[in-house]
Amino acid sequence: MSIVLWALVALVAGAAFLTLNARRALARRPPLELPPGEALGSTVLERLAARCLVGGLALTAAAGGSVAWVGPEVFYSNDRVRIVVTLLLLAALGVLAGFAFRASTWIRRTRSPLDERDRAILEAAPRLEGGAMLVTLACWVVGLQQAFWSARAVPMVYLYLVFWSLLMVKVLALPIGVLVGYRRS
Prior knowledge:
Elements: H1 3-25, H2 44-70, H3 72-77, H4 79-108, H5 116-124, H6 129-147, H7 156-184
């Protein structure tokens, strides 16, 4: 199996693990009693999480697509491609870290747009980051072992890709956890 396919499997498995376990681990709250015909709108935190998740996923997918397009070896040896991919990943990291920074700022302020439900969801959201990262790392290890068994050495480019994929799974976990938390309540 191609190493690029293993990288994709690692990222998808990490995201799937995170989403499925978030649904299971986040407590289901009793539904809110609303008058008939009235729907509950999305909260400020939920909208921010969705926007940041879409932006972060788009930038991460662009970076991953670039690496897949040119191939890992060309990516690592071509400075221009490596810098562009790294800048895309840093931009995604900035978008997703911006979400975490804004949410933590809201939590610390006494007058914030967050209510008790938002605070409870935000508190429970990061619980599954470690598990998603472990699943991603396990997929990488199995894939790299299969691909480079005969060589008995893994090229440095893959260690670079492992680092970035683990970091992106970690920062994607918070907005995913927030959005799953709202679906569960």
